[in-house]
Design brief:
This protein is of the alpha/beta class and 562 residues long. The chain has 20 helices and 20 strands. The strands form 4 sheets. It has a 5-stranded parallel beta sheet, sandwiched between helices. Strands 6-7-10-8-9 form a 5-stranded mixed beta sheet, sandwiched between helices. Helix 13 runs parallel beside helix 14. The radius of gyration is 31 Å and the shape is globular.
Length: 562
């Protein structure tokens, strides 16, 4: 047999063996199972901002997110769009939630999925999480641990109680009599993970073990969230304090709490940085879509507020698209020197038209691009276009005109500006550009129509005083919000971006409490924060409790403007 023939025979035999078709060929080993992995991720005590960078990375890669209800909202925002989510549920007579989570995680990992198991606080300090990790190890499932901020550490920091020196940590649910005796006999600061319903009993345990009844303590619920509340008392008075403030709820299950016992709690008046934020806990209605309200909502959160976006307008294509089509073609053929974007919606409208024609950001080559503000500029950058002009001062049409160069026939080969905008936009920018010597193609790129009504729950909150404040950014937002949801309750603080908007609000029977010093949404948010500070200071000076507007008795008379 020639070498070539032998090689052919060997090749055939090898192929037959690989496919199992050769007579008498031995079967190979079974294929290895496809393994994914499980990431046990610490979701922290409640504030989404306390997630670590490593946690955010793991969430972005997850195929399946397994999380208890109390942490699902914290982690879901960092997961990729469309990720599968599951909440471990108790199965009567079969599995505990932790056992159900273990079964789900291991089964999904065996199919090759990247599973993130989100745990409140730090998984390394959670006995159920430890049991789930052990189950993965026994099943041969690869896993990793991403630590999180433990509630016993994070909550005191947010309550303004520093932990230093000799600190003891106690889990009240698992603490033995000996444990209480040891911490009670010491002078250490004691951090107790407990419930609001049992904290008074824990205080009594410490007094029985030797702690002085006048030892100061703090008790915090919903720590690190905008629902956080802290009581300051002593071991002897905490029961009466909770009763006097009607803190103890009707029996609806235990409410987790962190109690800190010892001298560091006396510094809370000076170190309470979180609960004293300007708008702490305020529920603020923002009449914009989530996409439009990103920077404004972030600013409100920095003041401690809880923004709730409700769109009052919807965006639709123009009734006659021919004008927009001619303008986009003119953009490509060199008809314009400038294009000016006055909103994110205008960027979106042009981008959609580009995609319809198979164009991309390269079509802007040789054309100067202006954006009315930072949010519009970010939308352009996302499109692949860096704007040449963004107002250095006020982010408005007037601010844009302040920085816009006059037409110069020597330096500007073309004298025309493309202005894609809404059908109801004002003529301020057009008139200003014409005055500067430019020709303007004022093109309707999109129409604004009244949005659909928000859910019934939101409408009831608006009319019933469930919101502490509402930010009106234009006259149309006033008219549209009242039209789709009803008039805000008289306890709700009304904040308006300018005189015209305020006048419209008053015409609808609303009392304006806050006016922005300049027509800017960020100046409006700052003005509301300043109002909140003055309101808090007035309450403290009068010896009154600091409450949110929505906590006032419904039907009570509106206060005078601060």
């Amino acid at each position: 047999m020639s070498p070539t023939a032998a090689a052919a025979t060997n090749t055939t035999t090898t192929a037959d063996a690989a496919t199992g078709s050769s007579a008498g060929a031995a079967e190979g080993p079974p294929p290895l199972p496809v393994l994914g992995h499980v990431t046990f991720l610490g979701a922290g005590p409640g504030d989404p901002g306390l997630l670590t960078l490593r946690a955010v990375e793991a969430l972005a890669r997850a195929d399946l997110l397994v999380a208890d209800q109390q942490v699902l909202d914290v982690v879901r925002t960092h997961a990729r769009a469309g990720v599968d989510t599951a909440e471990p549920a108790f199965t009567e007579g079969e599995l505990s939630p932790s056992a159900a989570a273990t079964k789900l995680c291991t089964a999904s990992a065996r199919t090759g999925k990247r599973v993130v198991r989100a745990i409140a606080g730090d998984p390394g300090l959670d006995p159920q999480a430890a049991a789930e990790m052990l189950a993965c190890a026994h099943a041969g499932i690869p896993f990793e641990v991403v630590p999180g901020v433990a509630a016993a550490i994070g909550v005191p920091a947010y309550a303004g109680v520093p932990l230093s020196g000799d600190v003891r940590f106690v889990d009240a649910a698992a603490a033995s009599t000996r444990c209480w005796s040891e911490v009670g006999a010491s002078d250490a600061t004691v951090v107790v993970s407990t419930t609001l319903q049992t904290v008074a009993a824990n205080a009594a345990e410490l007094v029985s073990a030797g702690r002085k009844p006048d030892t100061p303590l703090t008790v915090t619920v919903a720590g690190t969230t905008t629902r956080q509340r802290t009581w300051t008392a002593t071991l002897a008075t905490i029961a009466a304090e909770l009763k006097a403030t009607k803190a103890l709820p009707t029996p609806e299950g235990p409410i987790a709490a962190i109690a800190v016992v010892g001298e560091p709690t006396t510094q809370r008046d000076l170190l309470s940085w979180f609960e004293t934020k300007a708008l702490f806990g305020w529920k603020v209605l923002v009449p914009r879509t989530k996409e439009q309200a990103v920077s404004l909502s972030d600013q409100l959160r920095s003041y401690g507020a809880v923004p709730h976006e409700v769109p009052t307008i919807a965006v639709e294509p123009p009734r006659t698209p021919q004008q927009m089509e001619r303008a986009v073609k003119g953009l490509v053929t060199g008809r314009y020197e400038w294009i000016a974007f006055t909103s994110v919606n205008a960027v979106k409208a042009v981008r959609e038209k580009f995609e319809e024609y198979g164009l991309d950001a390269r079509a802007f080559a040789g054309i100067k691009v202006a954006a009315v503000g930072e949010q519009t500029a970010r939308a352009l950058v996302d499109f692949g276009v860096k704007p040449d002009l963004v107002p250095s001062g006020e982010q408005s049409a007037a601010g844009l005109l302040e920085d816009w160069p006059p037409y110069d026939p020597v330096f500007d080969p073309i004298d025309r500006v493309f202005l894609p905008r809404a059908d109801i936009a004002t003529e301020t920018l057009v008139a200003g550009l014409v005055e500067l010597g430019w020709e303007v193609d004022d093109v309707t790129a999109y129409r604004t129509v009244r949005a659909s009504p928000p859910p019934a729950e939101t409408r009831e909150a608006i009319k019933g005083g469930g919101f502490d404040a509402v930010l009106f950014t234009s006259s149309s937002t006033v008219r549209n919000l009242v039209g789709i949801a009803g008039k805000p309750h008289n306890v709700t603080v009304i904040a308006c971006i300018g005189p015209a908007t305020a006048k419209t609000a008053e015409e609808h029977g609303l009392r304006v409490d806050v006016m922005a010093p300049e027509p800017s949404v960020h100046a409006l948010a700052q003005a509301l924060a300043d109002f909140g500070v003055r309101r808090r200071e007035a309450a403290v000076a009068a010896g009154d409790p600091v409450t949110r507007p929505s906590e006032r008795r419904p039907g009570s008379r509106r206060r005078a403007r601060v």
